[in-house]
């Protein structure tokens, strides 16, 4: 975790989201690679076993309450897996204006969600079919004692590289928002606005901003410290997913749609979207409760 944090401190100095095309491409390639490997190994393992393990009821638990907690945690994980609202506008801002950006993003969102769902279902279903109730939270660790070892190591290396790029993709909008806000709030501050250029041999001139270095470094250090205190990947993802899902992916888009399309109160479309938003709010609350319980149990259980 310390090594990952050190790498992110360096990577976080990328000036802005527009300069991250190469990193985004690498992260996407890594994601496809380890997903294909996980899917393929699960499929092969099922054929090798000659049977489908597990059951329709899922992992058995000592009591109904534990079963509910696991289901709630699963909802939190799913909620984290899909929303990308924090980077959607940043991505759209990098597109050319012809054809219109919103039409491109609508098409890209539909394709990406279909592809993502395909891989989620394939890895999840074949992983459970391969290992049954002993399925690990990280599917690739279940193949750790099987050949080919090099393929497992390669897939895990792809995960690390994907996380390096993914961290930056989600952090850069936060960096940009805070730096723009501080620039407007303190327009005369040299610490916030001044850039210092350093010329390095055989390299492009390096521009240094004190705010960028201190804020971004502090951000990475704080997230690394939190990760070391709570090294429980799935539970933390569930908490973050539940916190982001309803407000960012459901409530604000629905409210904006009402304003943009001038949807009147108590019309058919207004009622349907309100019910949809309320159901998603319940899912968020349930996922948040389950994920917090899982985090506490993992930490102090």
From TrEMBL:
Chief place of localization: membrane
Tell where it localizes.
Answer: Membrane
Q: From which domain of life does this come?
A: Eukaryota
Q: Where is the Amino acid transporter transmembrane domain?
A: 1-296
Q: Which UniProt keywords apply?
A: Amino-acid transport, Membrane, Transmembrane, Transmembrane helix, Transport
Positions of transmembrane segments = 22-44, 108-129, 149-170, 213-233, 239-259, 271-292
A GO BP entry is: amino acid transport
Q: Does the keyword Membrane apply?
A: yes
- Listed Pfam families: Aa_trans (PF01490)
- What is this protein identified as? Amino acid transporter transmembrane domain-containing protein
Q: Which organism is it from?
A: Acer yangbiense
């Amino acid at each position: 975790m310390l090594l990952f944090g050190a790498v992110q401190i360096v990577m976080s100095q990328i000036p802005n989201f527009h300069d991250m095309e190469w990193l985004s491409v690498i992260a996407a390639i890594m994601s496809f690679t380890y997903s294909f490997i996980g899917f393929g190994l699960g499929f092969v393992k099922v054929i090798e076993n000659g049977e489908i393990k597990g059951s329709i009821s899922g992992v058995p638990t000592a009591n109904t309450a534990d079963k509910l907690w696991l289901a709630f945690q699963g909802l939190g994980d799913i909620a984290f897996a899909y929303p990308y609202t924090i980077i959607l506008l940043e991505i759209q801002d990098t597109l050319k204006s012809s054809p219109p950006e919103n039409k491109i993003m609508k098409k890209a969102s539909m394709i990406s969600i279909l592809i993502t769902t395909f891989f989620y279902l394939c890895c999840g279903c074949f992983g459970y079919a391969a290992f049954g109730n002993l399925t690990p939270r990280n599917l690739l660790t279940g193949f750790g004692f099987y050949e080919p070892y090099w393929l497992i190591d390669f897939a895990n290396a792809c995960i690390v590289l994907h996380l390096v790029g993914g961290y930056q993709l989600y952090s850069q909008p936060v960096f940009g928002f805070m730096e723009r806000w501080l620039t407007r709030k303190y327009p005369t501050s040299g610490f916030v606005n001044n850039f210092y250029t350093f010329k390095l041999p055989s390299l492009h001139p390096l521009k240094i901003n004190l705010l960028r270095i201190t804020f971004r470094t502090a951000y990475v250090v704080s997230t690394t410290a939190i990760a070391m205190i709570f090294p429980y990947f799935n539970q933390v993802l569930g908490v973050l997913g539940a916190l982001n899902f309803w407000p960012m992916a459901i409530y604000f888009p629905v409210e904006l749609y009402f304003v943009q399309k001038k949807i009147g109160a108590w019309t058919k479309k207004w009622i349907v979207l309100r019910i949809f938003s309320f159901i998603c709010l319940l899912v968020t609350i349930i996922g948040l409760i389950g994920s917090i319980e899982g985090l506490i149990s993992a930490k102090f259980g």
